[in-house]
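Late entry, evening session. Most of the bench is empty. Finally got around to the prediction I had been postponing all week. Sequence below, unchanged from the version circulated by S.P.
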Amino acid sequence: HVQLVESGGGSVQAGGSLRLSCIASGYSVSSVCMAWFRHPPGKEREGVASFYTTDGQYTYTADSVKGRFTISRDNAKNAVDLHLNSLKPEDTAMYYCVSTPDYWGQGTQVTVS
């Protein structure tokens, strides 16, 4: 049974930090490509960061969060984290963990005021 479970969202003030965690079950995160997407209220869904190779060597970070957000992978925990720093109100969104071929977590809310 494949499952992705996100945690770590919350409400923070601008300039603050959060760490989102996505724990996978049913398969290894090192065997698939993993990504974080977000869906801001009233806006299009956006890819935020990803490991686009299974070896974890190559990552993608959206221009809107470059220099502030970092994706990391912990094979021992079978988890992929998203580190959010210098948060801005426009980062407010539901954040989703995604893996190939098309598995999605339930999402975790981030609110920046």
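Two things to note before I forget:
The longest strand covers residues 18-25.
The chain has no helices and eleven strands.
Will write this up properly tomorrow.
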